[in-house]
Design goal:
Elements: H1 2-22, E1 25-29, E2 34-42, E3 46-51, E4 54-59, E5 63-67, H2 84-101, E6 104-105, E7 109-110, E8 114-116, E9 119-124, E10 129-130, E11 135-141, E12 147-148, E13 152-157, E14 164-175, E15 180-190
Length: 194
């Protein structure tokens, strides 16, 4: 009886592993790495996968190909498949090396963070910095549909609604090595006519 029970448990585990392999998705990154994973979510900006029991997020700019239910595709895969342990170690090594090699920081300074409509706000990103080199681009999104690309800019916020309206302004900076960082600031605009 004990032997039969062990066989049953073993066959269930094998079936689960086989189904897992049969229905695994494949993600090929631009770096050449190939991941057998399970796709959990797709958006217009990123893809979320489960790999080795861990959720991973990838922006599409880092993804070369996505193959869902790739059982028929696996015969053509490059020989660069890596184990989950190796991949986790590589991610940890990469994070460690990045954090020790540079620090990039986006900083937003404003002349005002609240006021009445129309509210003119001066944004300054010149305090942003990077230890990897100088900042080469400043990309502003003021949260009201307006954008700008200079380090110091002005935006006028208008609130036609009753009460206060909150805008989230975002600065994304990039250094000469291609590293990026972002910062957010809150702008509250009141309508003085209501």
């Amino acid at each position: 009886m004990k032997d039969l029970l062990l066989r049953l448990v073993f066959s269930i585990i094998l079936s689960a592993m086989f189904c897992d392999l049969l229905f695994a998705d494949t993600l090929i990154l631009k770096s050449g790495k190939v991941l057998e994973c399970k796709i959990q979510e797709k958006s217009k900006d990123y893809i979320k996968v489960e790999y080795a029991g861990q959720p991973l997020y990838y922006e599409y700019k880092y993804v070369q190909q996505v193959h869902e239910d790739a059982s028929e595709f696996k015969a053509d895969l490059p020989k660069q498949l890596i184990s989950a342990q190796e991949w986790s170690k590589e991610i940890a090594d990469e994070k460690r090396s990045k954090s020790s090699n540079y620090l990039i920081k986006a900083v937003i300074l404003t002349n005002s963070s609240e006021g009445f409509s129309p509210l003119k706000v001066v944004f300054n990103g010149l305090k942003s910095s990077s230890t990897a080199g100088r900042i080469v681009s400043y990309n502003w999104d003021f949260g009201d549909g307006d954008v700008a690309v200079l380090p110091k800019v002005q935006n006028t916020y208008i609130n036609m609604n009753y009460g206060s309206k909150i805008y989230m302004a975002k600065l994304t900076v990039k250094d000469e090595k291609g590293n990026t960082a972002s910062a957010l600031t809150r702008i509250s605009v009141k309508n003085k006519n209501l």
